[in-house]
Design goal:
The chain is of the alpha/beta class. The chain folds into two domains: 127 residues, 3-Layer(aba) Sandwich (Rossmann fold), CATH 3.40.50.10860; 146 residues, NAD(P)-binding Rossmann-like Domain (Rossmann fold), CATH 3.40.50.720. 32% of the residues lie in helices and 21% in strands. The strands form two sheets. The protein has a six-stranded mixed sheet with strand order 2-1-3-5-6-4. Strand 11, helix 7 and strand 12 form a beta-alpha-beta unit. Helix 4 packs across helix 5. It is globular, with a radius of gyration of 19 Å. It starts with 8 loop residues before the first strand and ends with a helix.
Length: 288
């Protein structure tokens, strides 16, 4: 890392708690690789102090930040401009400067899609299933349905709460994304009724994380060899879902790439003329 001086650009990840974050490892390694005069620090900030913190950061040599739990929703009222997906989500994970305005967006879903592309996965004219109806599902559904270059054929969202998934689908329809894809929803317990026609399965639920390491959101027998199964969970790297998918002959993609690529997209907002070295970011995380 370069010596910090009066011209050093300050970047941060803001959350509560924040000690667990892997973002400083990735970004400082990338900053060093590109020989930039910048530093990326973790800032622990209780929810009721976020407004004061953002206002203070505006006054110093502050270049941008990532936001994590519990700040993603509250932060939208503290920036000057929101991206379309941030407006739809009602949350942001990245803040950056553009034309003297502090802007907010979310890079998570685009990091996930970039990760899939890097793994050779194509979704044009494909049938997609999203497991879950939380924030990650909402973001990925928006990103997929607004992808005009690779329009999907259909999207079906599976969840445990029928009203929640119905509301999500209605929100997506109201967003007028100009996508001709079929959009529907179903209870997660009914996944087996539709599974054979699905090309890409994306898990956005926490099922498979500690302490439920031996659990999967769907049954192994409902996975087919010609499918791609993507789990955005990255700890553990090989979830029960991915283990089952491998045993069934399906292609699998872990969630680690989403973490790296969403970070790289944030980095591009802060340093538009820099090209993030994805290998450096992956290598840093592989040492943990």
């Amino acid at each position: 890392m370069n010596k910090i001086n009066g011209k050093t650009q300050i970047l941060a990840v803001i959350g509560d708690p924040i000690a667990h974050s892997l973002s400083p490892l990735m970004h400082n390694a990338l900053i060093a690789k590109l020989n930039l005069d910048a530093v990326y620090i973790p800032i622990n900030c209780p929810a009721d102090n976020l407004s004061n913190l953002i206002n203070s950061l505006r006054e110093i040599n502050f270049s941008g930040a990532n936001l994590t739990i519990p700040h993603k929703e509250k932060a939208i009222s503290l920036v000057d401009k929101l991206s379309p997906i941030a407006q739809f989500m009602g949350s942001i994970n990245t803040i950056y400067w553009e034309d003297d305005k502090l802007c907010g967006t979310t890079t998570d879903p685009y990091g996930a899609l970039t990760n899939l592309r890097e793994e050779g996965v194509k979704w044009e004219n494909k049938n997609i299933a999203i497991l879950g109806n939380g924030g990650a599902a909402r973001a990925l559904a928006f990103a997929l349905l607004s992808d005009e270059k690779s329009p999907i054929q259909s999207l079906k969202i599976f969840g445990r709460n029928p009203q929640n998934i119905a509301d999500l689908c209605q929100d997506l329809q109201n967003a007028n994304l100009n996508n001709q894809a079929s959009l529907d929803y179903a209870p997660l317990n009914d996944f087996n009724k539709f599974s054979e026609d699905i090309n890409l399965i994306i898990n956005t639920t926490p099922v498979g994380m500690a302490p439920n390491l031996d659990q999967s959101p769907i049954k192994a027998e409902d996975i087919y060899p010609d499918q791609v199964v993507y789990d955005i969970v990255y700890n553990p790297l090989q979830t029960k879902l991915l283990q089952d998918a491998k045993s069934r002959g399906a292609q699998t993609v872990t969630g680690l790439g989403m973490l790296v690529h969403q970070g790289a997209l944030s980095f591009k907002h802060w340093f538009p003329h820099a090209e993030p070295d994805i290998k450096t970011m992956f290598d840093q995380l592989s040492q943990i």
